[in-house]
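INPUT
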Amino acid sequence: KAGVTQTPRYLIKTRGQQVTLSCSPISGHRSVSWYQQTPGQGLQFLFEYFSETQRNKGNFPGRFSGRQFSNSRSEMNVSTLELGDSALYLCASSSGTGGGKNIQYFGAGTRLSVL
Amino acid sequence: GENVEQHPSTLSVQEGDSAVIKCTYSDSASNYFPWYKQELGKRPQLIIDIRSNVGEKKDQRIAVTLNKTAKHFSLHITETQPEDSAVYFCAASIREPKLSNNDMRFGAGTRLTVKP
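OUTPUT
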């Protein structure tokens, strides 16, 4: 079974631009969660999508948005980029359907640098 | 919402010693507490987890304990080895039986260094 795939792996943007990151979950997984990882803040929860619906949301401004497609692939969009958005963005997939363990499996991440 | 605090932020031990990392959480409804290990340049990987109906769980050299009353849980690594060096994250979430809510909040991480 293929793992969680994130594209692109690296991205360089300038302030004010917007960016879209992609995450393909493990086959059969319906839940995709997004996290921002920075050295000082650890792993910060952005949002979770399940069956094309945003089920949970963290404390990030509206510039951060996402969506999920019918095949469970998810995209995250950040508009009007700021220097502070430079981080490693991780997505994690899980079955999301209850019962037993609901382990989250992480992708390798997209490292975004905003200049 | 849930708030998870993790201590210490850095920990250095001698090979063979034990390491303990502690986390506290704020939401008494949280009932699932996983621990992730992230090696340099790699993705976080689950190493052990515990549910609120269990007080302690062991897996070889690692164990996790949970005190629901005090709302804290800890990771214990015994007989540490250099390959245990990594950043460890605790997390807490509410797992509803049917929905498996994935609003998982992570601690800030502990950088563990095991010196040979």
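end of record. Chain B has a mean pLDDT of 90.
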